[in-house]
């Protein structure tokens, strides 16, 4: 039977012959019969991700950070709290300090106390006090620092000591 505008078509999927009115174009581009082959696109195909907003609303500029470094001038054992450093330049009480132990781990603590830079000495039989003056004996005195906690392991002379600071401020 001839029906104007309703010509015969072949289903792209099942191969059956159908009138144009019984056919539909799928999202795949195929012309298929509506009797059994036509499939709408699965809704999940239209799911799209929503990008996370990872921006920081109140960002501050990076704080300049330095990692100073020196070494142990003497060997120490677990439990010690006073260590002799090769250099104490720039260190202050409250600064963080990390001492590399012989097992490779690091004891992190803080500088509880730097020696007071004054001394009493005997000079030609007289007791002479340098109270409040900067006095160093071969530059060694102020290199003995007291830790805020005990050494967690043995450490040998020459082991690395980390002395980090943030913006020259101490860590307490
Ligand atoms: Zn079909």
Task: Explain what the structure shows.
The chain is mostly beta strands and 172 residues long. The protein has two domains: 8-44, no CATH class; 65-166, Elongation Factor Tu (Ef-tu), domain 3, CATH 2.40.30. It has no helices and twelve strands. It has strands at 8-10, 17-19, 23-25, 31-33, 65-71, 82-84, 96-100, 106-113, 119-123, 126-130, 144-147, 160-166. The strands form four sheets. The protein has a six-stranded antiparallel beta sheet, with no helix packed on it. A hairpin with a 2-residue loop joins strand 9 (119-123) and strand 10 (126-130). It starts with 7 loop residues before the first strand and ends in a 6-residue tail after the last strand. Mean pLDDT is 82; it is low at 132-139.
User: CATH fold name of the largest domain, please?
Assistant: Elongation Factor Tu (Ef-tu), domain 3
What best-fitting shape do the alpha-carbon axes yield?
Answer: rod-shaped
At the first level of CATH, the class of the largest domain is Mainly Beta
CATH architectural type of the largest domain: Beta Barrel
Question: Biggest sheet: strands, sense, closure?
Answer: 6 strands, antiparallel
Radius of gyration: 40 Å
> Uncertain spans, ≥5 residues at pLDDT below 50?
132-139
* Number of E strands: 12
Which percent bin holds the helix content?
under 10%
Number of helices in the DSSP assignment = 0
Decide which structural class fits the backbone: mainly beta
Overall domain count: 2
Overall pLDDT: 82
